């Protein structure tokens, strides 16, 4: 009996130990799952072209030359099994995509005679996580040509330029190629959304059909020794669509230079008196035949000005407002054209962010434990004394959680373990007049990375650096990225807005998450209103996780835009402007983060995306 009792007690102890071990293993497993959910399981660390790091596009390429493409990825898993699939896309024509035999992270390719060769690589792990990157090899276009309508030089690439003719006219269209183009072939078609197969001419000129519409489009496809190009002509009877409305802006009586002719985005201070004047050119219609309607944030407003083309108001305390004038003919109000300006609030507050004493706005950790005792700080100054610093947790649902009300914030141990701290925190700086300015910090989890270990500079160094940055990064200043030639605008001391691509002929636009301006690393947090509006060449766009806002009509009328990857989880109804995706291809496929799939399916439909467009994770 005694032995039986002892054996029973022994078995009971063994059972308890097994239960305890199971509990420990389960907890460890669940803890591991939390880590995985908190960050992207598979991310692109670096891309290479011919060993040049962090580059995905090369412009000065030559036909017949070999180029080496490479991708490096990071994973939250140790020693993940990765699968690589490479695809070739001639002239960015995704319908002609060809799968290649390469199954490694690196591939050698030979440049074709096309103006552009694109390569897509998909990397997947055994868990089903995936990253996709696009490489682009471009060359100088020897088929650069001059276009003429009725022997008058014609500029077609602004997406709005309609050559105005009288009803019934048959204008002569001409493509004049450069002398380097040999054995040139021309193929003309009358271009439409539904059918562009109607060949009309095989010469360098084409007599258009009798023009009775407001916008007839013709395309000339040119081929020379294997090099190909397509040019678009737009002709029509004068209407609102053929006018090119522009805005003039005055702040307290002084004219303000807007950034470009078609992208308007400026800052003004609270209480500034602002006057907007719409300027249009018409060969046929007088001012008395045109009507003007003014809108603020897409809501109609009453214009008290004696002149209908002028709108005067006082800048309010709202952070960002979009003012728009829509013009139409009084005889036909069904067709409108517009010109608009996004006016942000210039708080007068300038500052710099610091991580552990070093000028920085990003921190990368390999585990939650490394978040302990990281010191985030904002040094700010403004037109009025600074009143308060308020720290917030900005999670993926855009809810703001107040953390502290001090100039410096240290993550305490009890909150550093929480998964919501993998993302972003923000500091709202307010002065005694109620003006405020946001400063953001990005916190990234990358288990394969080297942790951020900034060197703490002296106080004197901080002050010197601060002064230089405030001078170099003037709010509203224009900046051009040396690598991609894209245009940006400085929005705060360490953030910029993507304004426009390097060319209106760009077929692939990959918005970066950061760029360097005057030696300062800046985060790209927004895409400007009308940034790529009317770009009929654009076929693919990648929007990074750093983007918080997308402006009104940012991608409107990009009729060939069929591939969009949205990596950011921060978009909301308020942060995406009206008609941001209006007029993109009905055959488009939009890839969004898994957690935001349902929310983004609903959101994007309200921003102009057709019901036929596929939105998937």
Automatic annotation (TrEMBL):
Pfam families cross-referenced by the UniProt entry: LRR_5
Membrane-traversing stretches: none
Superkingdom of origin: Bacteria
Protein name: Leucine-rich repeat protein
Domain Ig-like: 245-342
């Amino acid at each position: 009996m005694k032995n039986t009792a002892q054996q029973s007690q022994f078995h009971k102890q063994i059972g308890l130990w097994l239960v305890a071990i199971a509990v420990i293993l389960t907890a460890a497993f669940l803890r591991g799952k939390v880590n995985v959910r908190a960050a992207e399981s598979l991310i692109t660390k670096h891309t290479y072209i011919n060993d040049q790091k962090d580059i995905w596009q090369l412009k000065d390429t030559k036909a017949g030359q070999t180029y080496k493409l490479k991708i490096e990825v990071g994973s939250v898993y140790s020693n993940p099994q990765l699968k690589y699939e490479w695809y070739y896309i001639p002239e960015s024509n995704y319908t002609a995509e060809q799968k290649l035999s390469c199954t490694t992270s690196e591939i050698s390719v030979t440049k074709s005679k096309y103006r552009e060769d694109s390569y897509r690589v998909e990397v997947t792990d055994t868990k089903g996580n995936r990253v996709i990157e696009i490489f682009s090899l471009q060359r100088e276009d020897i088929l650069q040509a001059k276009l003429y309508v009725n022997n008058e030089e014609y500029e077609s690439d602004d997406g709005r330029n309609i050559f105005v003719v009288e009803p019934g006219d048959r204008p002569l269209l001409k493509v004049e190629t450069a002398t380097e183009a040999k054995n040139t072939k021309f193929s003309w078609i009358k271009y439409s959304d539904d059918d562009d197969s109607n060949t009309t001419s095989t010469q360098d000129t084409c007599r258009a059909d009798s023009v009775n519409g407001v916008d007839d489009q013709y395309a000339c496809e040119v081929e020379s020794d294997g090099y190909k190009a397509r040019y678009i002509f737009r002709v029509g009877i004068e209407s609102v669509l053929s006018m090119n409305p522009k805005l003039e802006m005055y702040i307290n009586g002084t004219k303000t230079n807007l950034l470009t002719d078609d992208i308007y985005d400026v800052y003004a201070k609270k209480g500034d008196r602002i006057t907007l004047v719409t300027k249009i050119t018409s060969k046929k219609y007088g001012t008395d035949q045109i009507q003007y309607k003014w809108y603020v944030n897409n809501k109609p407003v009453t214009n008290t000005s004696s002149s209908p083309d002028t709108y005067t108001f006082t800048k309010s305390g709202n952070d960002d407002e979009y003012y728009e004038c829509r013009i139409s003919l009084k005889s036909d109000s069904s067709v409108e054209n517009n010109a608009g300006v996004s006016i942000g609030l210039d708080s007068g507050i300038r500052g710099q962010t610091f991580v552990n004493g070093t000028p920085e706005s990003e921190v990368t950790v390999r585990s939650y434990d490394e978040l302990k005792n990281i010191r985030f700080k904002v040094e700010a100054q403004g037109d009025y004394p600074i009143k308060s610093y308020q720290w917030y947790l900005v999670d993926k649902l855009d809810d703001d959680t107040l953390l502290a009300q001090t100039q410096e914030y240290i993550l305490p141990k009890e909150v550093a373990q929480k998964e919501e701290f993998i993302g972003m925190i923000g500091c709202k700086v307010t002065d005694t007049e109620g003006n405020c300015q946001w400063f953001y910090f990005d916190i990234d989890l990358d288990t394969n990375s080297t942790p951020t270990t900034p060197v703490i500079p002296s106080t004197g160094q901080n002050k010197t650096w601060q002064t230089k940055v405030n001078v170099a990064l003037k709010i509203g200043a224009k900046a051009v990225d040396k690598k991609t030639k894209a245009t940006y605008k400085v929005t705060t001391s360490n953030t910029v807005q993507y304004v426009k691509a390097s060319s209106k002929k760009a077929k692939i636009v990959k918005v970066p998450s950061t760029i360097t301006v005057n030696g300062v690393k800046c985060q790209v947090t927004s895409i400007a209103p009308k940034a790529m509006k009317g770009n009929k060449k654009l076929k693919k766009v990648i929007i990074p996780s750093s983007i918080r806002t997308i402006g009104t009509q940012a991608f409107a009328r990009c009729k060939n835009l069929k591939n969009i990857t949205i990596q950011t989880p921060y978009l909301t109804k308020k942060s995406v402007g009206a008609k941001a995706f209006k007029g993109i291809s009905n055959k488009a496929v939009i890839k969004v983060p898994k957690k935001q799939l349902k929310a983004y399916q609903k959101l994007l439909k309200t921003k102009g995306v057709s019901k036929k467009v596929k939105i998937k994770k």
